[in-house]
Specification:
By secondary structure, this protein is mostly beta strands. 4% of the residues lie in helices and 32% in strands. Strands 1, 3, 4, 5, 6, 8, 9 and 10 form an 8-stranded antiparallel β-sheet that branches. A two-stranded antiparallel ribbon has the order 2-7. The mean pLDDT is 92.
């Protein structure tokens, strides 16, 4: 069984986005403007202020910290997975030092361009304390992986409100 494939994980929203994370927003591996790196996560497009839920029980590893274009991020270890929840609204993190599956942890932020989404990155070596920055085409740590297969599993397990 791969990490994150059981019922102890859920989708980060109470409903699915109108646009797919595989082709409706910016998907994993898509070229970034300027061509210097690839997109290291999946974007889940929702209106600003939409509550974001923890996908599983976890421990806050880092954050909140400034991320991109007026938004923030947190890094939470969920067992063997480490997730970066990016592009959250400033001051919206309410998860605490530990989180429970389905708990509201933050709200969707608004980028300077006016778009709003959760930028979700998945790392498969949750025990590593190394920075998420790195080399390669993604300019991320080597264990960055496509969130789409995880989201496809979790979409049938929406958090309870």
């Amino acid at each position: 069984m791969i990490a994150g494939s059981d019922e102890s994980f859920c989708f980060p929203f109470t409903k699915l986005p109108l646009k797919s994370w595989t082709n409706g927003g910016r998907q994993f591996g898509a070229p970034r403007s300027g061509g210097t790196r690839k997109h290291a996560g999946c974007d889940l497009i929702f209106p600003p202020g939409t509550p974001i839920h923890a996908v599983a029980d976890g421990i806050l590893v880092r954050g909140p910290y400034y991320f991109y274009s007026g938004t923030y991020a947190v890094e939470i270890r969920h067992g063997n997975l480490l997730l970066r929840y990016g592009e959250i609204a400033s001051g919206s993190y309410t998860g605490g030092a530990s989180v429970k599956k389905g708990q509201v942890i933050a709200k969707v932020g608004t980028l300077g361009s006016g778009s709003s989404m959760l930028h979700l990155e998945v790392y498969t070596n949750g025990s590593s304390t190394a920075s998420l920055s790195g080399g390669g085409g993604f300019k991320r740590r080597a264990d960055v992986t496509d969130p789409a297969p995880y989201l496809n599993m979790w979409k049938t397990n929406l958090p309870r409100t």
